[in-house]
Amino acid sequence: MNRKIYIPILIVIFSAAIFYSYEGFSDIYDDRLFPKIEITALEDDISYVELDKSWSYQRINRRWTEEVNFPNTENVPGSTGVEDVLDVAPVFSYNKSIEVSADKVPDRSVLIIREQTTETVKFQDIVNIQELPHPEMNGVFEYILTMEWTDETKQYRGQKTISFPIVLDFPENYQFSREEIIQGDILEITVYYAGNPQDVFVEQSIFEEFRWFSQEGLLRGYIPTNYSTEPGVYQIRYGSKSAGTEYVKDIEVIAHEYRVQNLYIDENIEQQTRNEKAYAEFAKYFNPVRLQSAPVRYYTDSFIIPSKGRLTTEFGQTRYVNDAPTSYRHSGLDIAAPTGTDILATNSGKVVLAMPLILTGNTIVIDHGEGLFSVYFHNHENFVEVGEMVERGQLIGSVGTTGFSTGPHLHFTMSYYNMNLEPGFFLVGQPITFANHREFLQ
């Protein structure tokens, strides 16, 4: 009787590639394989380059396997570098949203946007891949997107880094901070995707010395107002010389009611602090420091109140000193507080003056960049020196009664160059007055 003998044969496969050719493989592990990635802007597909990738998944036997052949990436546009796809880089002439879709949503995505010509990084942060940001300037940019899958509850993990170029060619976008301003406020004009500052014009009659500050494709300009600005509706013409565009916008300057103050001071103090020597010293040291400013902003956060206390003089008040009229308006806010009370820097900037003056006592001036200054008079002590960079909220001095002063207080001024402004607009978004100062200063 013949019997069949079965001899077991062990087949050892040294390459995992054979499993990718097995027709049942994708059905078993399809939900664990390397994700499929597509990039679109509206309905247009964007080609990309794979810079780096790694992937592993858990097999049925619960062992983790590193994927090496990446069968799902065969249809990615062939390229070895960003330069190879520049010819097909999408040109954005209006705000199209860039969307990255993945059949496995990444747990974390980090985007780097690099300007091609200078190779400088313009953006680096965690992003939502369904809506990638644009730089606020025109040019050719390389987007480098790293997606990570790290969820330990899933049966796969890995990362993928891709790169693709885009060209931004947006038209200039003009933004006005407001359409009406109260005397003492400042109007900010921002131009996004701007070219040469000499090409962008602004014609207006509110402020004669208008200028642009340029920063990486963005232009900013300021039109300050105060008690010397006539209320009314002003027409602003603006546009691009090269493009032949011209636009018109009406801005209304609204009158602010300025009070009259009667100030009585000891005649000896007045004679010692309000005299020709004091005025000459003030003109020599104080006046020049607000004529030049850094061309860039030193600050990124909002302005803070430098010292708490009781308001004794509003901005813009007309003064009578010992019943005699003065020829000037009050240039800031007087905040009465006990001697030694902390004075904080209202925002980041560079100290351009820190010295005692006969008229204003211990004085500090900080340049915040782009023409904006903060001023601190009558300090008991100054804790900073000229040239020092200070941070928002840093202790810079203490309240005192030095110089022409009736008692311990901080005289605080904000100005655009040497044009004094209502500090309240920077600190709380409105004038600080006797009617509301308790809400803000105490």
Automatic annotation (TrEMBL):
SUPFAM superfamilies: Duplicated hybrid motif
InterPro entries: Cell_wall_metabolism_enzyme (IPR050570), Dup_hybrid_motif (IPR011055), M23ase_b-sheet_dom (IPR016047)
Signal peptide: none
Keywords recorded for this protein, A-Z: Membrane, Transmembrane, Transmembrane helix
Residue spans crossing the bilayer: 5-22
Gene3D superfamilies: Glucose Permease (Domain IIA)
Keyword hit for Membrane: yes
Domain M23ase beta-sheet core, first and last residues per copy: 329-421
Molecular-function annotations in GO: metalloendopeptidase activity
Recorded superkingdom: Bacteria
Keyword flag Electron transport: no
Name of the protein in its database record: M23ase beta-sheet core domain-containing protein
Organism per entry: Desulfuribacillus alkaliarsenatis
